[in-house]
Design a protein that fits this description.
The chain is α+β, with helices and mostly antiparallel strands. 17% of the residues lie in helices and 39% in strands.
C-alpha cells in the first residue's frame, strides 16, 4: 500500500498537484497530552519530526538521519512499520535527587526502509517533561557509523544560555544571547584563550527560554560506544545539528544490533523543570550492580585547595612544600573525623608528578605512608579518597588501570578521583575511544568496588543509573578557577543548575570561606639573555559571599560534595560552618522554587534519611529579595528554621564574609522574605520538631 502511495504521489507531481496531503504523519502525545511529537515522511522519503508544547511550537520540522556502512538513512525512505506502547514504572535510585523516580512515557517505533532494502528503527519517547529519540540499526556483524544528521530546528529566536563546543574542553564561559546571537565572535568570547572550538557550535546541555516563557534544554542520554555530541548552529534558520566528536571518517564501529544514544529535549513551563527532570536518568538502563552497599554518598575534605593557593604543591621535588605527607594528611583526617565528614581526598601522593613524567599509580612518594594513613583513617571512621591524574596520558593509565584498582581495593580505598588535564595524543577528550575509556573506568571500577569522580570528563549522560559507582564529574568551570585569575563570571553559578547540572551530578568543589586571599603566579618574562620567571603577588576574589558558598551545597547537586577550603579557614566562622556539617548530600525529593537562568535560583531538597528540609538560594551581581513559601513542608508539623543569610552591607566585592544567622519555628503556612546581596545567597535548614 505504501509503495502504491509513492507511485501515486509521483504521478500527481507530474500534473502539479499539492502533495501536502500525501505526507505520512504519525503523532505521539505525552501522558499528560501537553507535549505533541509529530513524525513526518515527505514525498522525497525524508524523515522529520517536530515538537509542540502547551500550544507553542518548540521544534520546527527537523531532519532525522544517519549515515552508515550498512546504508544511508536520510532520504528515499519508506515506512514499513509503526508500533506504539505506553510505559510506567517507579524505581529507586541508589542515591540521587529523589528516593523514588517515576518513569512514564508514550513510545513510538517507526521502521524505515531505504532504496537498497536496508532498515532502521527510530524510537521516539514522549514524557511529561520532554522528548527523546534514537536510532537502532538491526542485523548482525560490524557496522561503521560515519555521520548523524539529527537536527533541532528551533521554532523561534529563543533566549539561549550556552557555552562553546569543543573536542577537548568543557571549561568555558556561559553566554546569554538570543539564538541569533550565536556566531564566531560570541563563540570566541565563550572560549576565551582556547582555539580548538567548533565553528559556531555549542556544547550540551544548552538551555533556552522561548517567547511564550517555556524552558528547553538539549542534550543526550545513555552514551555508550559512540562519540560525544556537540551541536553545530546555523543562525539563518536557527538550527542545531548533531556534531559527532572526532576527526576520523568512521566515528564509531559497532556490533549490530546497535542503538545510538538518545537525543533529548527537556521542556516545561517552569524553569524548575530543568532542575527537577529525571528524563536523562529514565532513558538509561536499570542498575547492573547486584551489591551497591559499598556505594556511599558523602561530604569530604581534601589536600587540594592548598596547592591552588601555593601553600604546598603536588610534586615532591617542587618549589613549594610537598602536600601529600603522612603528617599533613593526618591533620585532614582529624578534621574530617571531628566534623563528621566521610572522606579525605589526597592529591599529589604518587610518584610521577611533574609535566611530562610517567605516573605510577601503585607507588606512593616516600613521605606518604599509605598503609599507615589507611589504618589511621579507618581508626577515625574516615576513608582515604584516591587520586589518579593522567596529564592526558591515557595509554599510560590504561596500561596500569587494573593494577592500580587492585592496589586501592587491597587497601580498602573505594573512592577515586580521576583527571585528564591536557591534550590527548592522537585523539580528543570526547571521541569514541575516549568515551569507551571513561566508561571503562566506571565498569572496571565497579568490579573493584571503586566509586569514580571524573575531572575533565565526557559530559554526563545518566549512565550513573546503570553504574551508580559513577558518583560525580566536573565538566564545567568549577571553584578552582577563582584561584588563578579573575575567576568565573558573577552569572556563572546561577547558570549551572539549568545547564551543566541538568546532565548529572556536578563536582563543583564548594565551600570556600576565605573569599579574599593572596596567591603567587609565576610568569615568563623576556630578557636580553632569554626567558626567566618572575613572581607576581595577586589578591584573588571568589565572586560570591559566604552565604552564597553555603547555599551551593543545596543548589548544586552531587552525592559527593567537597568541603573545599583549608581547615583553619572554617574555624574562624564556625557558626556558619554548622550548616555544612548538617546539610545532607542524598535526597528524598527536590523542588526548584524560583529562579531565572543566569540570574538567580532557589532550590529546596528533603533529606532522604529524615524529615528535614534544606533550601539554598544564590544570585548574580544583583541584590534580590525572594519570598520563599514553605508550603512544601508536611502539614501539621513544626520545624526549627535556621537561616544563614547575607548581613547588612554584604556583597561579593565589598564585604563577602558578612552574614547573619537567625532561628525560629515555622510551619508550611509561613513565607520567608529573604534579601540576597550582590553575588550573595542564603542557606536554610528546616528541622522537623
Amino acid at each position: 500500500m505504501r509503495r502504491i502511495a509513492t507511485i501515486v504521489a509521483a504521478m500527481l507531481m507530474l500534473v502539479g498537484c499539492d502533495l501536502n496531503w500525501m505526507l505520512e504523519r504519525e503523532v505521539l502525545k505525552s501522558p499528560d497530552d501537553r507535549t505533541i511529537l509529530t513524525f513526518t515522511l515527505n514525498s522525497d522519503g525524508e524523515p522529520t519530526y517536530s515538537v509542540n508544547f502547551a500550544g507553542e511550537e518548540i521544534i520546527a520540522p527537523s531532519q532525522l538521519g544517519i549515515e552508515t556502512s550498512r546504508g544511508e538513512f536520510e532520504e528515499g525512505l519508506e515506512i514499513v512499520a509503526v508500533s506504539r506502547k505506553t510505559f510506567r514504572d517507579v524505581w529507586e535510585p541508589v542515591w540521587g535527587q529523589y528516593a523514588e523516580i517515576t518513569n512514564q512515557y508514550s513510545e513510538m517505533v517507526v521502521t524505515l526502509e531505504n532504496r537498497a532494502g536496508d532498515c532502521i528503527d527510530i524510537t521516539f519517547r514522549v514524557f511529561d517533561d520532554g522528548v527523546a529519540f534514537r536510532y537502532t540499526l538491526p542485523g548482525e556483524g560490524l557496522c561503521d557509523i560515519y555521520d548523524e544528521e539529527s537536527e533541532f530546528r528551533m521554532a523561534s529566536d529563543c533566549m539561549a544560555h550556552w557555552m562553546a563546543g569543543s573536542d577537548d574542553d568543557a571549561e568555558f564561559n556561559y553566554m546569554h544571547t538570543p539564538l541569533s546571537g550565536i556566531n564566531a565572535e560570541t563563540m570566541q568570547q565563550s572560549a576565551g584563550r582556547v582555539k580548538d572550538i567548533l565553528e559556531c557550535g555549542v556544547a550540551t546541555p544548552v538551555a533556552m527560554k522561548s517567547p511564550a516563557g517555556n524552558y528547553i534544554a538539549l542534550h543526550e542520554a545513555a552514551l555508550w560506544q559512540y562519540p560525544g555530541m556537540a551541536l553545530d548552529f546555523d543562525a539563518d534558520d536557527l538550527t542545531f545539528t548533531t556534531e559527532l566528536s572526532g576527526d576520523k571518517r568512521v566515528k564509531s564501529s559497532v556490533e549490530l544490533p546497535f542503538s545510538t544514544p538518545w537525543r533529548t529535549i527537556i521542556v516545561g513551563d517552569r524553569v524548575g523543570t530543568l532542575v527537577e527532570s529525571s528524563m536523562i536518568l529514565n532513558l538509561n538502563e536499570p542498575c547492573k550492580l547486584e551489591d551497591t552497599s559499598w556505594i556511599k554518598p558523602m561530604k569530604y575534605v581534601g589536600v587540594w585547595w592548598e596547592m591552588h593557593l601555593k601553600v604546598s604543591i603536588w610534586d615532591m621535588e617542587g618549589k613549594y612544600p610537598h602536600c601529600a605527607t603522612t603528617e599533613n594528611v593526618k591533620k585532614y583526617i582529624d578534621f574530617a573525623a571531628e566534623n563528621g565528614f566521610g572522606g579525605v581526598l589526597v592529591e599529589g601522593w604518587n610518584v610521577g608528578w611533574g609535566w611530562g613524567e610517567r605516573f605510577d599509580y601503585s607507588r606512593p612518594y616516600p613521605d606518604f605512608d599509605i598503609d599507615e594513613l589507611c589504618r589511621y583513617a579507618e581508626e577515625r571512621g574516615v576513608e582515604l579518597i584516591g587520586h589518579h591524574e593522567t596529564y592526558a596520558n591515557v595509554d599510560n593509565y590504561d596500561a596500569q588501570m587494573e593494577d592500580a584498582y587492585t592496589f586501592y581495593e587491597g587497601l580498602g580505598v573505594n573512592n577515586v578521583k580521576t583527571g585528564y588535564v591536557g591534550n590527548i595524543h592522537e585523539r580528543n577528550h570526547y571521541d569514541r575511544e575516549m568515551v569507551d575509556h571513561y566508561n571503562r573506568t566506571v565498569v572496571d571500577g565497579a568490579r573493584h568496588k571503586l566509586c569514580i569522580d571524573i575531572h575533565e570528563p565526557i559530559h554526563s549522560t545518566g549512565i550513573c543509573r546503570t553504574y551508580p559507582n559513577l558518583m560525580s564529574a566536573e565538566g564545567m568551570r568549577g571553584q578552582e578557577w577563582h584561584a588563578w585569575n579573575a575567576g568565573n563570571g558573577i552569572d556563572h553559578n546561577p547558570t549551572l543548575p539549568f545547564t551543566r547540572n541538568v546532565a548529572g551530578p556536578m563536582d563543583f568543589t564548594p565551600g570556600i570561606f576565605d573569599l579574599r586571599y593572596h596567591n603567587t603566579i609565576n610568569k615568563a618574562a623576556a630578557t636580553a639573555d632569554g626567558s626567566v620567571n618572575e613572581t607576581y603577588d595577586y589578591t584573588f576574589y571568589v565572586n560570591s559571599t559566604l552565604a552564597h558558598q553555603l547555599a551551593q551545597y543545596v543548589v548544586f547537586y552531587s552525592p559527593i560534595q567537597m568541603v573545599a577550603d583549608l581547615p583553619e579557614n572554617y574555624r574562624e566562622y564556625d557558626d556558619a560552618f554548622e550548616f555544612i556539617r548538617d546539610v545532607p548530600v542524598d535526597w528524598a525529593t527536590t523542588k526548584c522554587l524560583d529562579g531565572e537562568i543566569g540570574d538567580y535560583v532557589v532550590t529546596a531538597r528533603k533529606d532522604r534519611h529524615s524529615d528535614d528540609w534544606y533550601v539554598g538560594g544564590i544570585t548574580d551581581g544583583e541584590c534580590r529579595e525572594v519570598a520563599v513559601s514553605l508550603d512544601f513542608l508536611d502539614a501539621n508539623r513544626t520545624y526549627k528554621a535556621t537561616l544563614y543569610r547575607d548581613g547588612e552591607g554584604a556583597g561579593w566585592d565589598t564585604n563577602p564574609t558578612k552574614y547573619t544567622i537567625e532561628s525560629k519555628d515555622v510551619t508550611k503556612s509561613d513565607i520567608l522574605n529573604i534579601t540576597m546581596a550582590p553575588g550573595g545567597g542564603f542557606a536554610l535548614s528546616l528541622k522537623a520538631i
